[in-house]
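pinging the channel bc i need a second pair of eyes. not urgent but kinda urgent?? the chain im working w is below, pasted from the shared doc
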Amino acid sequence: MNTSITLIGCGILQKETDYLIKKNGWQLETRYLHSALHNYFDRLHAELDAGLAAAEKAGERTIVFYGACHPRLEQLLDRHHTCRTHGQNCIVMLIGYERFMEELSKGAYFLLEDWALTWEPMITECFGSNLKVVREVFHGSHKCMAAIRTPCSGDFTAAAEAAARFVDLPLVWMDADLSHLEAVLLEAITEREQRDRT
């Protein structure tokens, strides 16, 4: 790459993304948005729109690091003449679609370190503080909480256990390397470069 690209997106995999950028020597600047924004469509749209507008005004080329996390995301990408990482969500981008679907079929709710560390305030802000209602929401479609460790994860065992207790789901652990995420990011960088050449 001749000039840098600005990656704007979800901070849920910030440590993993930063590690891969350094490992590969990619000329990527990063601007991460709060990982809980996917719970608030209006805020997600507004903050991503503002970030892309600022980058556009500064003459920066961008990549958006989000899955299909907003119903108007594609319109936003078109308006700002940019592209995004391919994948339904951050978990698919991390572990791949097949493994995601396999675990989802077992009733898994996927938990990453960033969410675990902010779990109770994030969930109560979104669903309220009535624990019975919160647990009904989670029990309606999930049978377990699957905490995902990556090579960049710290020890978030206690936070994951507390999160699982909070929603009254059994906790299981999964390990994920970064090969799939690396491929997803490289594909987005390549797409951005190809767009700039046409």
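so The longest strand covers residues 5-10. and The beta strands are 5-10, 28-33, 62-65, 83-84, 108-111, 144-149, 171-175. — does that match what u expected or am i reading it wrong
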